[in-house]
Write a sequence for this structure.
């Protein structure tokens, strides 16, 4: 009895030591980590567990790269870290960090080009984005398809522009293939030019085909388009003018001002959206030639100059009542 009792003590001590080690090993996997606030963490392509662990420790996400690697190999059940950018929450445990880096919750980032944003403003938006790298020139006007694009941290701005331009080429080709008998534009480039005017002249989706029909009629008749945005473009490159147009600007002769020239300007005046391109290749079958704002965010359309003058008078009355002048 005496010898048996003493023989069990080393076993009990060893078991207690093992249980203590397991408690430490497992507890360290689940205990809160050192991150004071949420942080983005990027795993480069081809990264090993060792390099990721070292990067995590260097960026303060975990307290020990060695402990993280050991626990990940034992408790990670064969999962492998994935390339991408991940959002690590404040106080994330090693287990949370590992789960995020081996899961599908990649941090996604986007840049949006609204319909009708001119290329100078696309340029400024991309250059101001701190996640992107490299220099770019101002893209050709009308070459960017307005949309929301996913970007990656460190991606070159030129690569993003290339995606935007490829999207425009595809959209234009698809819409051009659907053009109808009412289309007055003779080439995809003319479609982009006229679509850019339609885009700037109305923000009301329901009006696009009617506005496209009106301008198509004017092109067909050899009339001046008299689109105010074509006056502004040579002055601001498409940015808001911020004031009323001057009479001298209305009379200015250049390759864009459709008040002093017949037909289309020499190039687009903004980046039109797909719906505006679709409108000019399939414009409304209408005989309207004039339009003026109606005070509701849309336009009043007219077939004759007399009708148009009456609509203009109504618009001036609305503006006067609003105190515009």
């Amino acid at each position: 009895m005496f010898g048996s009792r003493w023989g069990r003590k080393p076993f009990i001590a060893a078991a207690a030591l093992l249980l203590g080690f397991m408690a430490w090993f497992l507890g360290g996997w689940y205990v809160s980590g050192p991150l004071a606030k949420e942080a983005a963490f990027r795993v480069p392509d081809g990264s090993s567990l060792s390099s990721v662990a070292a990067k995590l420790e260097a960026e303060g996400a975990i307290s020990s790269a060695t402990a993280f690697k050991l626990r990940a190999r034992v408790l990670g059940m064969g999962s492998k870290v994935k390339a991408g950018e991940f959002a690590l929450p404040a106080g994330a445990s090693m287990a949370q960090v590992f789960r995020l880096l081996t899961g599908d919750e990649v941090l996604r980032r986007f840049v949006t080009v609204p319909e009708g944003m001119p290329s100078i403003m696309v340029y400024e938006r991309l250059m101001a984005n701190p996640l992107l790298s490299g220099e770019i020139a101002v893209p050709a006007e009308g070459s960017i398809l307005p949309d929301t694009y996913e970007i990656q941290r460190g991606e070159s701005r030129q690569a993003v522009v290339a995606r935007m331009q490829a999207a425009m080429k595809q959209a234009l080709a698809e819409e051009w293939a659907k053009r109808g008998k009412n289309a007055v534009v003779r080439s995809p480039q003319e479609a982009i030019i006229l679509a850019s005017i339609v885009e700037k002249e109305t923000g009301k989706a329901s009006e696009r085909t009617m506005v496209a029909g009106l301008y198509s009629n004017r092109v067909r008749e050899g009339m001046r388009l008299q689109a105010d945005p074509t006056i502004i473009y040579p002055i601001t490159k498409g940015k808001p003018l911020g004031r009323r147009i001057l009479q001298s600007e209305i009379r200015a002769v250049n390759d864009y001002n459709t008040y002093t020239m017949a037909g289309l300007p020499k190039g687009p005046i903004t980046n039109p959206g797909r719906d505006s391109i679709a409108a000019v290749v399939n414009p409304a079958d209408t005989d309207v030639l004039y339009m003026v704002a109606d005070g509701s965010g849309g336009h009043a359309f007219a077939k004759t100059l007399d009708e148009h003058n009456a609509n203009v008078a109504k618009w001036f009355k609305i503006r006067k009542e609003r105190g515009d002048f």
About this structure: The CA atoms of residues 94 and 297 lie 55 Å apart. The beta strands are 39-43, 84-88, 109-112, 148-151, 290-293, 299-302. The chain is about 50% helix and 10% strand. The longest strand covers residues 39-43.
